[in-house]
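Researcher: Here's a chain I'd like modeled. Treat it as a single chain, no partners, no ligands.
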Amino acid sequence: MLGIKRLTNAVNRGVGICLLPLLTGVLFVLSMPPWGFWPLAFLAIAGLDQFLKGVRSAKTRFIIGFSFGLGWLFTGTFWMIALTVPGFFIQGLLFSGFYGFSTLLIPRTVHRFIALPAIFTLVEAFRYRWPFGGVPLATIAMSQSSSPLGQTARILGPLFLTFLVVAAGIAFSLAWERKWFPSFMLVVSIIVIWAFSLIAPKGSSFESIDIAIVQGGGEQGTQAINTDEREVFERHLNASSRINGVPELVLWPEDVVNVRQLLIDSPEFLELQQLAQDLDSWLVAGIFERTNNTSNANASIVFGPDGNTYDRYDKVRLVPFGEYVPLRSVIEPFAPDYLPARDTKPGSGKPNLRIPIEGVDLNAGISISWEIFFEDRAREAINNGGQILLNPTNGSSYWLRILQTQQVASSQLRAIENGRWVLQAAPTGFSAIIDSDGEVLQRTSISETKVLESRVELREGKTLATRVGPLPVILAAAVLVVCANVYARRKH
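Model: Modeled as a single isolated chain. Structure tokens:
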């Protein structure tokens, strides 16, 4: 009987250590798009803090943090199965491991209230940048893209917002322990920071233009290898005929002009020239061309109302295993057939397009698809004079709505951080018009053929986040982690 009781207790402890934090991680991901119940982020962090409270065993603390990461990251990146099954499992386990190890740097004393927000901020900063240049999917900041707290991103960017989200969770944890005064003071501090974000510099409008975003429509969840490139192109040609009036700028999605040669040698090039002339508008079209037998190019090209080309931006930040294969010689013998046969060659230019609209020398910042998840690409565009931000994208290969909604959330954050309107164009959804406060003014549905039209602001001036970047937050977080551990050890 004693042996059975011990076994039962061990099982119960195992369930508590693994299952409950995992479910808390799932609760956390429900705060993110497409679910979007943003207050759940605070409750989930509070739950994690309570699980870690007083736990001495390093092994147990790791398991708690790792399990929390599993519930969060595997649920929040489930769409990756359509891109790469091995990549889905590798990133989920790798990043969950990061969060597991991070719990070892969180003191068991009251100083954990300082260390937990700081260490999670550092882990987020790390996965924004590594491996393969970073994989910032299902990030903490995304959970607040549509919440009031999301406005604080204009102060010091997404990592600062990350710190505040975890700090808000700590406030809930303190309240659970009935430590009312520190909980109240923390909530007041967050509210003061939020209030400051409303008056913090965010640029100003100096002009407005009429724009149109073209979504050709079609079935979601289809891969390029099984798709007729010409059919996709014609959908967008036909959809462009629905444009009312004469917008000054027309935006097409990423790589909907897909040719197996250089674009300039293709019939599609002539048709794009003719379309720009017929519309009497500036056209920014996403193209994908074969540059030689071993490489491709993914770019957006500006066509003028006279049919001539004026500028071009080649995508710099590419999708690993989607647009190029890291360590190809090692991976390819074991890889499935859907790996790209040729690597896309990254561009090297600044993320800006110059569009000399009559009366306005438009400097359009641009982040193509995957690049919108990285704050540094948009910040570079605005620091280089960008007056608006374009996000031509193509998520038509991915099933469900997780990636598409997270990309809209990323566009919202880039809008808030830089004080610029963002125009997102996708072939099958979601296309969107987002103002400089991150509000989604218009958005298409999945698979529909639609043109979004609006008058949008061109803006100048810089936010604090645009000016200073993420380094101050990273350094401050590192100092807080060190200080929390030093003071915790002195106390003991």
